[in-house]
């Protein structure tokens, strides 16, 4: 099998091993085979919604990437987004020098950056599938949908299944989900094909505007909107507007009162600009071992 290679260089602290350890525990990706040295996966590229296999390994100052088809600028950018290597992280390290709480988290998970879904479209589908369900059950359902409607890519003599592109779910039924959730997924598929669930579109907007647009999509509430923007599109400076688990962590860390309004959490997060997403991710990753979404 012929592969095409390129390198992505990290700006600021980055530890690929920390990303791998996170992915091994994260329910959305825990089923991926891992040898502790490489990340291998298949997904449908936003540029053309065609499947592609990707292998990522550590390289001095960043990562080495191999793909099963020639990577254009779009695919290079997507792989960088998945590992948050499309953002200069030097300033994030400096934030830890002025915020002792954040600095302690950075020392406990050195070089860990947010690890994103392969695409905002896939993040949106996960947000619907996991609603009122355990992450383990949701992960199995998502994998079954991929096996039935997605394409299989061979990489390093092993097969990997890509979650299906939006067009494949427009008329799909029998997904193993309640009728309402299946209808929501079809609505999200239409939105993705209209360009509303792409990284380029979502990150071209101010975070507040992007969150508002996402909340208008079928089956997407405040928590899901934050997940799609932060962990799907990889927006580095968005703050979830309504996330009780994160708010509880911030209350304990910063001594906020039990009845603090959402505005108090937003005010506390102002000190993290322009890395509010990164700081929020780190709080959850350190406290739970994995992100609880």
Write out key terms for the chains shown.
two-stranded antiparallel ribbon, alpha+beta, four-stranded antiparallel β-sheet, 14 helices, 293 residues
Overall pLDDT score:
91
Rg value = 18 Å
Regarding quaternary structure, what we see is: single chain
- Can you count the helices? 14
- Largest beta sheet: what is the strand line-up? 1-4-3-2
- How many β-strand runs? 6
- Roughly how many Å apart are the termini? 36 Å
Secondary-structure element series: EHEEEHHHHHEEHHHHHHHH
Instruction: Summarize the biggest pleated sheet.
Output: 4 strands, antiparallel
Helix content: 40-55%
Fraction in beta strands:
5-15%
Low-confidence stretches: none
- Helix/strand-derived category reads alpha+beta
Shape: globular
Question: How is this structure best described in words?
Answer:
The longest helix has 15 residues, at 135-149. A 4-stranded antiparallel beta sheet has the order 1-4-3-2. It has a two-stranded antiparallel sheet with strand order 5-6. It is an alpha+beta fold and 293 residues long. Helix 4 crosses helix 14, helix 5 (120-129) packs antiparallel against helix 8 and helix 12 (244-254) crosses helix 14. 48% of the residues lie in helices and 12% in strands.
């Amino acid at each position: 099998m012929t592969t095409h290679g390129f390198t992505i260089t990290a700006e600021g602290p980055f530890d690929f091993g920390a990303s791998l350890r996170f992915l091994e525990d994260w329910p959305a990706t825990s089923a991926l085979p891992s040898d502790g040295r490489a990340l291998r996966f298949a997904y449908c590229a936003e540029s053309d919604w065609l499947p592609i296999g990707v292998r990522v390994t550590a390289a001095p100052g960043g990562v080495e990437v191999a793909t099963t088809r020639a990577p254009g600028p779009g695919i290079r950018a997507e792989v960088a987004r998945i590992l948050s290597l499309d953002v200069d992280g030097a300033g994030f390290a400096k934030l830890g020098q002025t915020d002792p709480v954040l600095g302690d988290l950075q020392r406990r998970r050195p070089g860990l950056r947010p690890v994103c879904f392969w695409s905002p479209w896939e993040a949106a589908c996960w947000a619907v599938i996991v609603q009122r369900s355990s992450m383990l059950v949701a992960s199995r359902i998502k994998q079954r949908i991929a096996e039935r409607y997605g394409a299989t890519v061979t990489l390093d003599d092993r097969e990997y299944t890509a979650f299906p592109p939006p067009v494949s779910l427009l008329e799909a039924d029998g997904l193993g989900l309640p009728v309402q959730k299946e209808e929501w997924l079809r609505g999200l598929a239409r939105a993705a094909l209209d360009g509303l669930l792409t990284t380029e579109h979502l990150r071209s907007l101010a975070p507040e505007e992007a969150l508002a647009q996402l909340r208008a999509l079928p089956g997407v509430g405040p928590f899901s909107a934050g997940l799609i923007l932060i962990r799907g599109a990889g927006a580095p400076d968005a703050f979830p507007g309504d996330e009780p688990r994160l708010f509880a962590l911030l209350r304990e860390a910063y001594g906020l009162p039990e009845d603090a309004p959402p505005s108090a959490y937003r005010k506390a997060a102002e000190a993290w600009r322009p890395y509010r997403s990164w700081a929020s991710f780190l709080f959850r990753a350190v406290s739970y071992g994995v992100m609880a979404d």
